[in-house]
Amino acid sequence: MEQLKHLPIAKSNANRLLIMASLAGVLPQVSQIIIQRYNWEDCADDIHIMHQVLQEIQAPLCDALPIVNVGAAGTVLRFVTALASVLTSKPLQITGTERLKNRPLLPLIEQLRLLGAHIDGEWTPKNEHTPLTIYPPQKKLQGGILSEDFEAESSQYISALLMIAPYFSTSFGIPLLPQDRNSRPYIDLTLSMMREAGSQWFNTQEGVVVKPIPYSPEAIMAMAHDLEYDWSAASYAFGWCSVARKPIIIPHLKASDKQGDRAIVGLMRPLGVKTRFLEGGGLELMPLEVQRLVCYTPEHLAETPDLIPTLVVTALMRRQPFVMKGIAGLRAKESNRIKQMVKTAALLGFHLHEEENRLSWNGVYHPIDPQKKILVDTAEDHRIAMAWSIASIYFPSMEYTDSSVVTKSYPGFWFESIYSILPH
Question: Which residues does the annotation mark as catalytic?
Answer without folding.
Answer: 306
